[in-house]
Design goal:
By secondary structure, the chain is α/β, with parallel strands linked by helices. It contains eleven helices and eight strands. The chain is 42% helix and 14% strand. The longest helix is centred in the middle third of the chain and has 17 residues. The chain is elongated. It binds 3-methyl-2-oxobutanoic acid. The site of 3-methyl-2-oxobutanoic acid (KIV) has 12 residues, from strand 6.
């Protein structure tokens, strides 16, 4: 299985890192079979699996439950578990406890948290001090959707650009082993990736990050909302609906189950 050192080596070799989200046994199994380097059990779970309008209502219990299922499908892949909104904001003690639960109960290998403020840096340091690897996340961090006033690309203005760059450097100094960059101009993704020695993984952060991440349901055409940075590799929503509609039609028209799908009783005089 990959480990924190593998990802540093990939950056050194300039080999791109592939991260894909997964949330349960089948998605974990498929992502592992596809050969991704890392699985992220993201709090995007709230939107693409649980049907919430944003990620804020996802709980630690939700992530633990889905991470356990994902691990059952992907026992040979490095799994990062997202720390939900307010699970690392209240106190250092609670932050450490919550991070450790994702490792011990969720069976994750690392945790991810959003933001680069002084409090977030303290949270990263405290978790790293517990020997738990941390992935940080900057840019359009979805847990800040209300603070940002919507899902808006971050770092377009010079001051914001410099602030995110400074936070990225501070995150590396705090001990994170990887940084997810979301919804920022390509130029900023490039500058951060060239400046830091830890790998960056981008989503809507351009071509120059050390890796790319996409949400499972986005790349398979199963999500309601499609941001500009999403490439849909397959349209499973349409394929799924068509298959379910065909089953519905066949049952209504009595063509399913046909002969090949039924069991026959053993005839009375042939029971030996
Ligand atoms: O929750 C998630 O899926 C994420 C990715 C978008 C990086 O944080």
């Amino acid at each position: 299985m990959n480990n924190v050192r593998t990802f540093k080596k990939l950056k050194k070799k300039a080999e791109k890192i592939v991260m894909i989200t997964a949330y349960d046994y089948p998605s974990g199994k498929y992502v592992e079979e596809a050969g991704a380097d890392i699985i992220l059990v993201g709090d995007s779970l709230g939107m693409v699996v649980l049907g919430y309008p944003d990620t804020l209502k996802v709980t630690l219990e939700d992530i633990i439950h889905h991470c356990q299922a994902c691990r059952r499908g992907a026992d040979d892949t490095f799994i990062v578990a997202d720390m939900p909104f307010m699970s690392y904001h209240l106190s250092i003690e609670q932050t450490k406890l919550n991070a450790s639960r994702l490792i011990l109960e969720g069976n994750a290998n690392a945790v991810k948290l959003e933001g680069g403020s002084l409090n977030r840096l303290a949270a990263i340091e405290a978790i790293v001090d517990c020997e738990i690897p941390v992935v940080a996340h900057l840019g359009l961090t979805p847990q800040s959707v209300y603070a940002f006033g919507g899902y808006r690309v971050q770092g377009k203005k010079a001051a914001e650009f410099e602030k995110i760059l400074a936070q990225a450097k501070a995150i590396e100094a705090a001990g994170a082993f990887m940084l997810v960059l979301e919804g920022i101009p390509e130029e900023l993704g490039k500058t951060i990736s060239e400046t830091l020695s830890i790998p960056t993984v981008g989503i809507g952060a351009g071509r120059y990050c050390d890796g790319q991440v996409l949400v499972y349901h986005d790349l398979l055409g199963m999500a309601d909302f499609k941001p500009k940075f999403v490439k849909t590799y397959e349209n499973l929503a349409d394929k799924t609906i068509n298959a379910l509609a065909e089953f519905t039609r066949e049952v209504k028209s009595l063509s399913f189950p046909s002969e090949e799908y039924i069991y026959n009783a053993i005839k009375k005089n042939e029971d030996n």
